[in-house]
Amino acid sequence: MPGTNLAMLVRHWRDRAGGTGRAQPYAEGNPVNELSDAAVMASLHRQLTFAAAKQVVASSNLANLNTPGYKAKTTTFSDTLARQVSGGPGLATTNTRHIGGDSDVSLSTTKEAEGLPARRDGNTVQIDRELLNMTAAAGEFSRAQTALAAKFRLVRYAIGEGR
Does residue 110 sit in helix, strand or coil? Predict the structure, then answer.
């Protein structure tokens, strides 16, 4: 039955809140939940954005399938992750109360795909590879969208129970 896991999460949340419907993260014997709603939403946002970027790159490659000399492109997240971990570009915070943020522009990096054989016209786009990339990106987007929808259902349920 879909929604069973959601109902279990809501029951767990209510039990932790002492049946009041309000979270009590600092109550005695109640550990602080380090994974906040904002962190979950930001993570889902990044996943949706990255999956969409992968689809854009694959569709661009497919659009240039017959362009002589076109080199297939790929998008990577690991380069961006390494940049952010090493303190690369981003918003600087000079006070602990400042709000930091991520820029969607720097979320993924697009570069030429390496190791692909070129056809006689110099084009490196492979239709099977691009269709596979688009399908994988659609699956990633769908999974993140499902998680986001579950999060919103949980919030709607919590709001409805508070009446």
Answer: strand
End-to-end CA distance of the chain: 26
**Is the whole model's pTM more than 0.90, yes or no?**
no
Q: Collect contacts of 2-8 with beta carbons under 8 A, ≥24 apart.
A: 3/153, 5/150, 6/150, 6/153, 6/154, 6/157
Instruction: Note the pLDDT tens digit of each residue in 44-72.
Output: 888 898 899 999 999 999 999 999 999 99
Contact (CB, 8 A) for 17 and 24: yes
Exposed, middle or buried, 133 (CB in 10 Å: 0-12/13-18/19+)?
buried
Backbone angles phi, psi at 103, to 5 degrees: -105, 130
Contact between residue 107 and residue 46 where contact means Cβ atoms under 8 Å apart: yes
DSSP 75-97: EESHHHHHHHHTT-SS---SSTT
CA trace torsion 71, 107, 78, 92 (10° rounding): 130
How many of the other CB atoms lie within 10 Å of CB of 71? 17
Alpha-carbon distance 55 to 135, whole Å? 8
